[in-house]
Design a protein that fits this description.
The chain is mainly alpha-helical. The protein has a single domain, classed as Amino acid/polyamine transporter I, CATH 1.20.1740.10. Helix content is 74%, strand content 0%. The mean pLDDT is 82.
């Protein structure tokens, strides 16, 4: 490393679990719910369960990898060691590519809810501003970022519980008919998009060198985050549908605010809108943390320019990586729309978890915690979900992969290294 500064182990089990919940609960429940409602109808609750079940297999692979190799960089580091440096690079690149779009999506989602409370303000201006604020928080330090995330996660869980309790008072069972208007195809298309919401379960593995007792803390935090998030997703999708029906949800970019406003209670609408902003803000915070650490790890291994691996002498944060990450997120906010960033990000994250499962297949038998069939199932379910994404996701996704391969070749040639 170019400087005598090291990452600090500041994150315990609560903080690690909160990172996972913070990364999962927000983008899906407050933003993607409306898109999935338009695809699956009331059967979106099945989409949520299918996506959650698929996430479990990949989560088991990632948990096993993190216990075996607790290193900063997550699947980038796992694949680099267990498969090949090139495949590791692809995993790291696709994570960066995906999460730049995640950051753009949640920034736009925050802005959509913000303008429901304060209309007349340009959505993209608010999105850029909130992105910049959380870049500054990440720049200052991981302890401060984790503390803020813990507060945000606690608040948004409480607000979601309020939404569930309030909505049950206006629940209409006839909103569930017809249950699956688009049939199994709509359900699986919905599952492929709601998987976007689950992809944050591995966020903590990216920061393994900043976690206390990572061999035990990381796997436990992954399962806690996934269990809590799935329960909340199921309850919210059921109550939102029972409140207003999926037609209303599908027509809004701020679906839960649209649902709660049907009850005619302005106070409840205000609380849910604030909850949505808190939720999307916490996802943005953890997204910037995760992407900057991947960029840092890749710079440290010379898979990206080594300058991005520099740590701030005072804050011990990868400050160059943080600002580079933020620059691309802001560009995506200005150039893309919400539906597109969700589908492209989902495609890229499915590729990422496909590589994670492939790496888990390479774990030596003596170090395995789970049956060898788990990563095989995880890999095939990722491929299956990719089949239900639209052509734009595939085109842009492969364009992103192609760009990554080109960068890799140029860097290796510049450094006089062999290209595999």
């Amino acid at each position: 490393m170019p400087e005598k500064v090291r990452l600090k182990r500041e994150i315990g089990l609560f903080g690690a679990s909160a990172l996972g919940v913070g990364a999962i609960v927000g983008s899906g429940i407050f933003i993607v719910t409306g898109i999935v409602a338009g695809l699956a109808g009331p059967a979106m609750v099945l989409s949520v369960l299918i996506a959650g079940a698929i996430a479990v297999f990949s989560a088991m692979s990632v948990a096993e990898l993190s216990a075996c190799l607790p290193r900063e960089g997550g699947t980038y580091s796992f694949a680099r060691i267990l498969i090949s440096p090139f495949i590791g690079y692809i995993a790291g690149w696709i994570w960066i590519f995906s999460n730049i779009f995640v950051g753009a999506a949640v920034s736009l989602g925050f802005a959509e809810y913000f303008v429901t409370l304060f209309p007349g303000i340009p959505v993209k201006m608010i999105a850029v501003l909130i992105c910049f604020i959380f870049l500054m928080i990440n720049y200052i330090g991981v302890r401060e970022s984790t503390l803020i995330n813990n507060i945000l996660v606690s608040l948004k869980v409480l607000i979601l519980l309020f939404f569930i309790a309030f909505a049950f008072g206006y629940f209409k069972i006839n909103n569930f008919t017809p249950f699956a208007p688009a049939g199994p195809t709509g359900i699986f298309m919905g599952a492929s998009l709601i998987f976007f919401a689950y992809t944050g379960f591995a966020r903590v593995t990216i920061m393994a060198e900043e976690v206390k007792d990572p061999e035990h803390t990381i796997p436990r935090s992954i399962y806690l985050a996934l269990g809590i998030s799935t329960l909340l997703y199921v309850l919210v999708s059921l109550t939102a549908t029972g409140l207003v029906g999926t037609d209303t949800l599908s027509r809004s970019m701020s679906p839960l605010a649209a649902a709660i406003s049907a009850a005619g209670n302005q106070g409840a609408t205000f609380i849910v809108s604030i909850g949505a902003m808190i939720a999307t803000a916490s996802v943005l915070l953890t997204t910037i943390m995760g992407v900057s650490r991947i960029v840092f790890a890749m710079g440290r291994s010379n898979d990206l320019p080594s300058s991005v691996s520099r740590l701030h002498p005072r804050f011990s944060t990868p400050h160059y990586a943080i600002w580079l990450t933020g620059s691309f997120m802001i560009a995506a906010i200005l150039l893309a729309d919400l539906s597109l960033v969700v589908t492209v990000s989902t495609f890229a994250m499915l590729v990422y978890y496909l590589i994670a499962n492939a790496a888990a297949m390479k774990i030596p038998a003596t170090k395995r915690r789970y049956p060898a069939v788990i990563p095989v199932i995880g890999a095939f379910t990722c491929i299956g979900l990719m089949a239900f994404l639209g052509p734009n996701a595939w085109i842009i996704g492969f364009a992103g992969l192609g760009t990554g391969v080109s960068v890799y070749i140029l860097l290796k040639r510049k450094n006089g290294q062999k290209i595999p």
